[in-house]
Structure formats: structure tokens, C-alpha cells
Amino acid sequence: MSLPEILTRPLSLPMMCSPMFIASGPELVTAQCQAGVIGSFPALNARPASMLDDWLAQISESNAAYAAAHPDQPVAPFAVNQIVHRTNDRLEHDMEMVVKHEVPIVITSLGAREEIFEAVHSYGGIVLHDVINNEFAHKAIAKGADGLIAVAAGAGGHAGTQSPFALVREIRSWFDGPLLLSGSIAHGASVLAAQAVGADLAYVGSAFLSTHEANAVEGYKQMIVESTAKDIVYSNLFTGVHGNYLRGSIVAAGLDPEDLPESDPSKMNFGSGGNTKAKAWKDIWGSGQGIGTISESLPVADLVARWKGEYAEAKARLAGLV
Predict the structure, then answer these.
(1) Angle (nearest 5°) at CA 121 between 81 and 54
(2) pTM
(3) What's the pLDDT tens digit per position in 141-198?
(4) CB-CB contact of 302 with 294 (8 Å)
(5) 3-state secondary structure 115-164
(6) How far apart are CA 44 and CA 29, in angstroms?
(7) pLDDT per position as a tens digit, 207-216
(8) For residues 187 and 154, what is the distance between their CA atoms, to the nearest angstrom?
(9) Tell me: the pLDDT tens digits for 245-265?
(10) Which among 184, 187, 165 is positioned nearest to 289, based on CA atoms?
(11) DSSP of 249-272, one letter per residue?
(12) Which of 41, 61, 67, 245 lies at 20 to 30 Å from 31 by C-alpha?
């Protein structure tokens, strides 16, 4: 199966930037797209809901203006993430905005629903669905998703536990469509590795949390810079879904990261802290394991440029080995 046209456009790197709660907004998304990598944000970040209409117009207009002024540079498309779960009471409204603005790529999480896929297909958009195992991958494609995002061990936020090598190969045994890989990717060589294992694009999030354009408090950005893989804690306490979080933020909330209770998955809530007073994403900060390569806060353009050099160096090194 060939890739959809939207995913074959020239990019600086074969990369989509993952949607991050609170941190991803128009400033970060446009900086990512204008650096030549696909930007994205969760629809729920636009608050109140009426703001989503403005954000979509702002991103589209900014990217179009930049492309017109820089015709020799790749400007990537953007994506919107929809939480397709019964707790999301904004889904119908947000999908109306997605259709109105004909968002080229929609990322769906925590539920695969045929009517969502059909709405995106009605104007020619594509849907990529988050999965943490092969069973969920089969279900998403059967219901009409165009492609998959394999969320492997070490990914930031809500993440799975399977090795990327195992997860990608299981999916590729039956699916030859668009496949992205998430999990500890924060270096140009890791982007190449994602392709080598069988993914079409790398799916990168946590490294962008420290960038100048991210809508994150300075303490969060600094903790990303100062932390490494050993500082990541995997827990379902804060939202009801297992995810990876920064140890320092858990300690700052007065909790023991070595002794966190389990949360009830049936009481999933993305705006609360589950059994705690600390709120996920606002007080308890998500992050993947790849942040050990992030040693300073940079503008998005500089970070992507660095990865581009690392990617080219890794390709040259491999070419010398074969």
C-alpha cells in the first residue's frame, strides 16, 4: 500500500510531532510545521471549546503565509488529536471544527469509532490511530483508520509497554499502510532507527517540551533538560490510563514515586489527578524516556536542525558499514 499523498510531501525529517496536553498550541505547532516536520495538538488544549475554531484558522493562515514567503522550504501539514472516549463531552463540537477547517490529519486516541473516521474521510483527510498492541491495531484498521501510531515502551504520556521492535514487526506482518513509531525518540539517529525497524515516520513528543515555543512552565522545561530515563515513572494513578511521568513532578506534589497506588481505569479522567489533588499534565508532568539527549532549551527550528544533522550522520555511518 502506498502512503496517502499528505504523508508523501517533502519534510525536513520523516517525523510527526505528537500532541501534548497543555504544551502543544498554535505557537508550537506552527514552529514545527515551518521547521519541516508535522505538528499536532490535542483539540482539548483549546479552552474554551470556541477557541478551537480560532486556533485552526491561525495555524492554517500562518503556515500558508510562511510557505508563500519561503517557497524553497518544506512546510509540513498539521494534525489534531481527538480523545475518542466517553468522558470527552466536547468530541461532537470539536469534530465539527475539524470538518469545517478540513484538518488534513486527525489522530484518534482511546477509542476507534467509525463515525469519526467517516467524518474525516468526508473531506479527504486521513486518520491515524494510537495503539499500544497488535490487537488494538487490528480493531482500528477494521473500523476504518488509515494508519497507525505504534506507542511503544518509553513513550511520553499514555504509553504501552511493548518493545518497538516487537510491536512494529507484529503490525507489519499484516499491515503495509502508514505506520508511525513512538517511544524514546529524541535524536536524529533514533528517527532513522524508527524507519529501519519498519515505520514510515518517527512520532516525537517529549523533546519538544523544553523548546521555547512549548506552552509549558519554566520549571517543566528545566526538568526535561535536567532529567534522564531513570527519572521516568510509569503509573495509571493520575488519569486511570498508564503513562510515563517525571519523577521530580511527582515528588513536588508530595507523593512517593516508589509507592504509587493503582487507579480505577473505569474512572478515567484527564482533567483530574485521580486519587490525588495534583492534576495530570498541569502538576504531574508527562515525559518519555528519551529526554537524556536534551541538554538545553532551544527554539524548535534549532532542535529540528540538530536532528537533521544527526540523521544525516547516522545514514552516512550506516552506509559505510554495508
Answers:
(1) 45
(2) 0.93
(3) 999 999 999 999 999 988 899 999 999 999 999 999 999 999 999 999 999 999 999 9
(4) no
(5) HHHHHHHCCCCEEEEEECCHHHHHHHHHHCCCEEEEECCCCCEECCCCCH
(6) 15
(7) 999 999 999 9
(8) 14
(9) 999 999 999 999 999 998 766
(10) 184
(11) HHHHTT--TTSPPPP-GGG--SSS
(12) 245
Residue 195 identity: Q
- Orientation of helix 188-197 relative to helix 164-172, angle to 10°: 40
State the burial class of residue 1 (Cβ atoms within 10 Å of its Cβ: 0-12, 13-18, 19+): exposed
Indicate the DSSP class of residue 206. G
Whose grid coordinates read 469509532? 113
266, amino acid identity: S
d(CA 193, CA 182): 11
Cell numbers describing residue 265: 481505569
Q: Please name the amino acid found at residue 228.
A: T
H/E element holding 306? helix 300-319
DSSP 28: H
Cell of 272: 483530574
